[in-house]
């Protein structure tokens, strides 16, 4: 059975655009909106809110395009340190450039880029030159003196006044950037300071999809947000400022609540003592909760996401990427929803595939596998709900076998017909062993996709299977082992939601 829709994109765009326009109309001045989270390709939202278009925020901006322009912020330190986006496997500066390109494909122009907390970093200088040579306006903002405690210094010519004013022309300015800590809020406040000095009315607002303030605190969708931000140590809570001011409960998260008194004081100082917002919730403009059309569907999807995040954290903890605090928080969130890893159907099926591989080798039915260090299994859940498995061999990784089996199932090709010729696989393996001097010669997913595309040019049956690959986007997959770089890269390209156990597919410490 296909997944039922839980979120209405058209309702969301209509509600969200109307609400932002109302905020602009009621204020009657330039509105700077800090866009938190992902502006494009918001895959987390699409997983926990089935039906959510990952690019619906770009569609929203198209709706507001006549009034809006976009500024992209990036932290100079993130460029210098070559900080990586774990979800895409690329650096933050590369992500910023990709964001500019992707927005351009939507017909949305980035008016300028701001390198924040600039201290003359060499890599940040090179990044700035690269953008300027492509005709993009680039500004640099230094760390704000006195932040966060010295309000007099912050709101002065030596604080925000040190930064150059970014030239803007539209009444709505969307300020976005790759990842947290990019300096979006500081850029907004610096702009409001300069606009006010010039006698122009300007205001700040926050656009943050999660947590969804209108849902209960312990709603699975909000808990899934905590699971998604384990590295940031975010925690949801009832907004105490909103409760005190209105008597109504609204959900926010710790960083926004903790920073609100400072933000409110800064805005009040800029605006001559006027307090615009009573709470972080009032400051926000997100209306995602009002576009949920099937709560049960979203609850189930969010539970699946919590399990996915837990399993990913377990794997990252095993390889030293995640720390113990993240692991313990992930475990606590699982307990809050009374979940186990087996709640994700592909988990027991993948483990069963690995057990079957081991039994086959022990019984002598598959002698070649006796030389393998580890018996690995993989399982993928198709959109129909059917679960397809695969196991490793001297020729293929378990994930590779599962993908091939899934394409054959979708294309109606009998399971016993190989899509890749053993001669071709062995030829690639020989190249890896004898020319590239690789220890592991079996095909990972990335290599398989290339081999499959070559085979499709020669065999119509293979082409039919290749045509089914887009159907795997968004499917759940589990491996009984930590994926190799080639498997992870290939599965990411296919858009598969991967989880894995902490078993290593090889006894070697270094995997090519």
TrEMBL record:
Q: Where are the transmembrane segments?
A: none
Taxonomic lineage of the native organism = Bacteria, Pseudomonadati, Spirochaetota, Spirochaetia, Spirochaetales
Question: Pfam families annotated for this entry?
Answer: DUF1846, DUF1846_C
Which residue positions does the secretion signal occupy? none
Q: Do you know which Gene3D superfamilies this protein is assigned to? A: dip2346 domain like, Domain of unknown function (DUF1846), C-terminal subdomain
In Swiss-Prot or TrEMBL terms, this protein is called: DUF1846 domain-containing protein
Query: Species name for this entry?
Result: Teretinema zuelzerae
Q: Where is the DUF1846 domain?
A: 5-337, 343-510
